[in-house]
Design a protein that fits this description.
CATH topology of the largest domain: FAD/NAD(P)-binding domain
Order of helices and strands: EEHEHEHEHEHEEHEEEEEHEEHEEHEEEH
Helix content: 25-40%
Strand order of the largest sheet: 6-7-5-15-16-17-14-18
CATH architecture of the largest domain: 3-Layer(bba) Sandwich
Number of domains: 3
Bound molecules: flavin-adenine dinucleotide
Number of strands: 20
């Protein structure tokens, strides 16, 4: 099928696109880039502006995560792609291969550090166990008395809205068109319905993040709220992405509100402080009590943070699925529709892996990792087709 747009005049202009990506967050941007690189004629439709959703609200931590074998496979693939691409991106994208340190507060968490190190070793992922002295040398602003940590040197940090912008610039250079302030109202077989036009394409990708269910209502994606705060400039205060070992449990629980120590060095020497997780629907308000709990947790690990002014604090909505895995692949109930959404707190990390898998699936190529765990059809048993 070739692309066509039918406007109010009823006249179809010359076919221009065979692929429409809905959403210009980091997932849509990465998919647009990968699909354009395959020679597809891509149109990106974004309701607001590029990277205006979760992508700009989050952190830019590119992190290996092992909550499940599928998550480990996707983050490992993605980190490999980031390590290839990151150094070639414009300096403004601020790709920084600073690595992650998982911080162990006590001997129990140190056992978890050793288990993580063994797991990573079996997957060929470099990591190094740090004793308290090595941890203090690498990060002198952590409090004394911590049990140690795990350095994962292949992890990185990026300025994520600029990465999305850069992906779209690359897609444009390959012939893609990006339309901002263009709301998609509905999707049907090979068709995208907007307020003032109807567009047809062979391939349609729903990459609308936490809003993806508004277009494909059976998708089990919910907004999962997170808080962040940022300091002024403090050169050298933090050198790696620092995360408490307990973050994994915090990321895993889907019930109560939780906070965890997670700080990120930004290129302009600010310290980005997170993080929190709660399920409160689309309520984006900033609750001072949750923010205070999050900052208090951070200060337990880096006491000097308590003396630093927070220049700004904000909230964002992670696109969460109940099984903690994104939806990547064909949406069988709607012909021509593909899903790339539901990346929760790992969408910056997994953007490149998601785009690679989606492009391989669209092209009918073999994928480099098993895509079964990410198949959107896993939710169909309990879903109404749309
Ligand atoms: C506090 C916080 C911290 C985070 N930290 C990290 C981290 O350190 N590392 C990491 O990997 N991930 C992190 N994340 C997660 C990451 O930000 C998200 O997983 C990722 O941004 C999701 O990208 P997306 O493109 O799917 O969604 P979005 O960025 O939300 O993009 C979706 C886009 O679709 C558009 N859209 C929606 N509906 C329509 C429509 N009907 N028509 C047209 N366009 C539409 C929206 O306007 C939006 O721009 C964090 C998230 C939060 C909130």
């Amino acid at each position: 099928m070739t692309a066509a747009a039918t406007g109010a005049t009823g006249v179809s202009p010359i076919a221009q696109w065979d692929t429409i990506v809905i959403g210009a967050g980091i997932i849509g941007a990465a998919c647009a880039r990968a699909l354009a690189a395959d020679g597809r004629r891509v149109l990106v439709l974004e309701a607001r502006s590029v990277a205006s959703g979760a992508t700009s609200a989050g952190m830019g931590h590119l992190v290996t995560m092992d909550d499940s074998p599928a998550q480990l496979a996707l983050t490992t693939l993605s980190l490999t792609l980031w390590r290839e691409l990151g150094p070639t991106l414009p300096a403004a994208v601020e790709y920084d291969p600073c690595g992650t340190i998982w911080v162990a507060a006590d001997e129990h968490e140190l056992d978890a550090v050793h288990a993580k190190q063994r797991l990573y070793a079996t997957h060929g992922i470099a990591s190094e166990v740090l004793d308290p002295r090595a941890l203090a040398t690498l990060e002198p602003n952590l409090r004394a008395g911590l049990a140690g940590g795990l350095l994962v040197p292949g992890d990185a940090v990026v300025n994520q809205p600029r990465a999305a912008t850069s992906f779209l610039e690359q897609a444009r250079a390959l012939g893609a068109t990006v339309r901002e302030h263009h709301v998609v109202e509905r999707i049907s077989d090979h068709t995208v319905h907007c307020a003032d036009e109807t567009l047809h394409a062979e391939v349609i990708v729903n990459a609308a993040g936490a809003e993806a269910p508004r277009l494909t209502p059976a998708l089990p994606i919910v907004p999962r709220k997170g808080y962040l705060a940022i300091t002024g400039r403090h050169p050298g205060f933090v050198r790696h992405q620092l995360v408490e070992l307990g973050y994994l449990a915090h990321a895993h629980t889907m019930s109560a509100a939780s906070v965890a120590f997670n700080v990120e060095p930004r290129a302009r020497d600010e310290v980005l402080v997170g993080s929190s997780r709660e399920l409160v629907g689309w309520d984006t308000s900033l609750d001072r009590e949750v923010l205070a709990r999050m900052l208090a947790r951070a200060a337990e690990y880096m006491p000097a943070l308590a003396t630093m002014a927070m220049v700004r604090a904000w909230t964002g909505m992670r696109p969460a699925t109940m099984d903690k895995l994104p939806l990547i692949g064909a949406w069988e109930p709607t012909r021509g529709l593909w899903i790339a959404a539901g990346h929760e707190g790992l969408g910056i990390t997994t953007s490149l892996g998601t785009a690679r898998l989606l492009a391989d699936l669209v092209a009918g190529r073999a994928t480099s990792i098993d895509v079964t765990p990410f198949s959107p059809t896993r939710v169909l048993a309990s879903a109404e087709p749309h």
